[in-house]
Amino acid sequence: MTDETLTRYRQSIDRIDAALVFLLAERFQITQAVGRYKADTGLPPADPGREDRQIARLRELAQQADLDPEFSEKFLRFIIDEVIRHHAQMQDGSAG
Fold first, then answer.
1. What was the pLDDT predicted at 89?
2. GO terms for molecular function, please (predicted)?
3. What is the reported pLDDT for 86?
4. Contacts of 86 (CB under 8 A, 6+ apart)
5. What radius of gyration, in Å, describes the C-alpha atoms of the chain?
6. What is the pLDDT along the chain (96 residues), one digit of tens a residue?
7. Of 81, 79, 96, 94, which is closest to residue 36 (Cα–Cα)?
């Protein structure tokens, strides 16, 4: 027998997961453009000051949203590290 309440919760989670994937895809499309720009202009792949400001901003937003700031920082750090890796590859000419 199916628990209808649990099914509705899971359907909501599935929709949120889909939205997250599409938002991440859009974010990475933009960061790829940033990486190409940085490679073309000789800017370094990482910007530690910007990263620190973004993490502080996200921690504040997490607190406002009643989300664990540590979790939000780990999540953003993972994304930032992946973006930097892509940017470094672009600088090396090994990504396109």
1. 87
2. chorismate mutase activity
3. 87
4. 28, 31, 32, 35, 95
5. 17
6. 579 999 999 999 999 999 999 999 999 999 999 999 999 999 998 999 999 999 999 999 999 999 999 999 999 999 999 999 888 888 887 544
7. 96
Characterize 54-80 residue by residue with b for buried, 16 or more Cβ atoms within 10 angstroms of its Cβ, and e for exposed: bbeebbeebeeeeeebeebbeebeebb
**CA pair distance 67, 72, nearest whole angstrom:** 7
Contacts 24+ apart (CB under 8 A), 23-27: 24/79, 27/79
DSSP assigned state of 1: -
CA distance 9 to 15: 10
Where does residue 90 rank: exposed (0-12), middle (13-18), buried (19+ CB within 10 A)? buried
